[in-house]
Amino acid sequence: MKQETSSDWVARSLKSVWHPCTQMQHHEQVPLIAVSRAQGPWLYDHQGRRYLDGISSWWVNLFGHANPRINAALKDQLDKLEHAMLAGFTHEPVVELSEQLAALTGHALGHAFYASDGASAVEIALKMSFHYWRNSGRADKQEFVCLQGSYHGETVGALAVTDVALFKDAYGPLLRASHVVASPDARGATEGETEQDVARRAIQEVEQLFEERGNKIAAIIVEPLVQCATGMAMHSPLYLKLLRELCDKHQVHLILDEIAVGCGRTGTFFACEQAAIWPDFVCLSKGISGGYLPLSLVLTTGQVYQGFYSQDVTRGFLHSHSYTGNALACRAALATLQIFREDDVLARNRDRAAKLAQALAPLAGHERTRHFRQRGMILAFDAIEPDPERAATFSRRFFSSAVENELLLRPIGRTVYLMPPYVLNDDEIEGLAARTIRVFESVIAG
Ligand SMILES: Cc1ncc(COP(=O)(O)O)c(C=O)c1O
């Protein structure tokens, strides 16, 4: 039998697979990599070349590829139950997962509704909020608020509360308008301002909007602590605390999209724990299944749940997806939560995050970077590239050079970021930092 090589798979893929978030013509210059297997933080292609997965395969992989404990749990689950519909039926993995997640919120958010992708979880939170107000005799509360630079996914409802022009503009006429308020992005600090000052300034805009239109607004949606897709824009937890107070005062739901920042990414299991608040809805996906299977969910309060509980079928939340609460995906999530408990992951990540920051210190003080920033296991900096043409191609040039240096990193514009899996040992931390510095130097040198 003919042995397929990397280039065979690449050619076949380019003919038959339409790749996500990609201008396909760019693959005339930028390499497409055919992965044959993966282990720990490493991806391997068919020629045995390896790539250190510095962005956890789009921020999903927490405990490395082919993790023995998650693999074992999935193999066990596979022989018991792969999937059963969740309307009229339930099963052990979905019940246990819901209970464990509720416990992680101190039972503030005790009801879990499941889907597969992050964007679907966002749709669910938006619909639940809207429908809750309608069920509560407040059908006039129909509007949504999002932040400048927000990203909540690509489906039509999620895109309506997204503020990234590149993803949104082409579909403008399809989308329902939402209010866009200032981002508390700490990079917006003026001379002498702290990140808390920026948060207070940003919250004033929300306050004004709520005072004017709070009775028409169903919910505000926020990515807590780090707005990832816009370029790792980080803000003070104070913003979330002040926002919670405003939402309470004006009876507006607070939806926290923890799809990217949840599951320990910012240093606590939920990012909002750093502000000592709970939202009305939290959306989780990506890391929750350890990066193995598509799983997303919305956790909400008893109050919201009770708003739907009725004899009347139309007051129920009739949303569904075929794979809602998939047993295999829930089992992967249970194995993931078990690793958090057994390995004291949050404490060990503090050490990893500090070592990574230290190893990247030459970039923090580099004359061609600014805004070196970190929240837990997310580190980012902005490259200074004064030539507009070179600035426009920075990300692609960086990616290609990274690949040549056994590294998977995909800058967002000129923001270079690292979001590695929580398994790096000291050598891998040093290797990740050294490769990043080498690639950066070569890309800015031309
Ligand atoms: C904060 C946030 N929300 C929602 C999404 C959408 O998730 P998915 O791509 O699984 O639909 C993403 C994806 O990157 C995200 O970062």
UniProtKB/TrEMBL annotation:
<feature type="binding site">
    <location>
        <position position="257"/>
    </location>
    <ligand>
        <name>pyridoxal 5'-phosphate</name>
    </ligand>
</feature>
<keyword id="KW-0949">S-adenosyl-L-methionine</keyword>
<dbReference type="GO" id="GO:0009102">
    <property type="term" value="P:biotin biosynthetic process"/>
</dbReference>
<feature type="binding site">
    <location>
        <position position="410"/>
    </location>
    <ligand>
        <name>substrate</name>
    </ligand>
</feature>
<feature type="binding site">
    <location>
        <begin position="321"/>
        <end position="322"/>
    </location>
    <ligand>
        <name>pyridoxal 5'-phosphate</name>
    </ligand>
</feature>
<dbReference type="InterPro" id="IPR015422">
    <property type="entry name" value="PyrdxlP-dep_Trfase_small"/>
</dbReference>
<feature type="binding site">
    <location>
        <begin position="118"/>
        <end position="119"/>
    </location>
    <ligand>
        <name>pyridoxal 5'-phosphate</name>
    </ligand>
</feature>
<dbReference type="GO" id="GO:0005737">
    <property type="term" value="C:cytoplasm"/>
</dbReference>
<dbReference type="InterPro" id="IPR005815">
    <property type="entry name" value="BioA"/>
</dbReference>
<keyword id="KW-0663">Pyridoxal phosphate</keyword>
<comment type="subunit">
    <text>Homodimer.</text>
</comment>
<keyword id="KW-0032">Aminotransferase</keyword>
<feature type="binding site">
    <location>
        <position position="320"/>
    </location>
    <ligand>
        <name>substrate</name>
    </ligand>
</feature>
<dbReference type="Pfam" id="PF00202">
    <property type="entry name" value="Aminotran_3"/>
</dbReference>
<dbReference type="InterPro" id="IPR005814">
    <property type="entry name" value="Aminotrans_3"/>
</dbReference>
<comment type="similarity">
    <text>Belongs to the class-III pyridoxal-phosphate-dependent aminotransferase family. BioA subfamily.</text>
</comment>
<dbReference type="InterPro" id="IPR049704">
    <property type="entry name" value="Aminotrans_3_PPA_site"/>
</dbReference>
<keyword id="KW-0808">Transferase</keyword>
<feature type="binding site">
    <location>
        <position position="151"/>
    </location>
    <ligand>
        <name>substrate</name>
    </ligand>
</feature>
<feature type="modified residue" description="N6-(pyridoxal phosphate)lysine">
    <location>
        <position position="286"/>
    </location>
</feature>
<comment type="function">
    <text>Catalyzes the transfer of the alpha-amino group from S-adenosyl-L-methionine (SAM) to 7-keto-8-aminopelargonic acid (KAPA) to form 7,8-diaminopelargonic acid (DAPA). It is the only aminotransferase known to utilize SAM as an amino donor.</text>
</comment>
<keyword id="KW-0963">Cytoplasm</keyword>
<feature type="binding site">
    <location>
        <position position="286"/>
    </location>
    <ligand>
        <name>substrate</name>
    </ligand>
</feature>
<feature type="binding site">
    <location>
        <position position="58"/>
    </location>
    <ligand>
        <name>substrate</name>
    </ligand>
</feature>
<feature type="site" description="Participates in the substrate recognition with KAPA and in a stacking interaction with the adenine ring of SAM">
    <location>
        <position position="21"/>
    </location>
</feature>
<dbReference type="GO" id="GO:0004015">
    <property type="term" value="F:adenosylmethionine-8-amino-7-oxononanoate transaminase activity"/>
</dbReference>
<protein>
    <recommendedName>
        <fullName>Adenosylmethionine-8-amino-7-oxononanoate aminotransferase</fullName>
        <ecNumber>2.6.1.62</ecNumber>
    </recommendedName>
</protein>
<keyword id="KW-0093">Biotin biosynthesis</keyword>
<dbReference type="GO" id="GO:0030170">
    <property type="term" value="F:pyridoxal phosphate binding"/>
</dbReference>
<comment type="pathway">
    <text>Cofactor biosynthesis; biotin biosynthesis; 7,8-diaminononanoate from 8-amino-7-oxononanoate (SAM route): step 1/1.</text>
</comment>
<dbReference type="InterPro" id="IPR015421">
    <property type="entry name" value="PyrdxlP-dep_Trfase_major"/>
</dbReference>
<dbReference type="InterPro" id="IPR015424">
    <property type="entry name" value="PyrdxlP-dep_Trfase"/>
</dbReference>
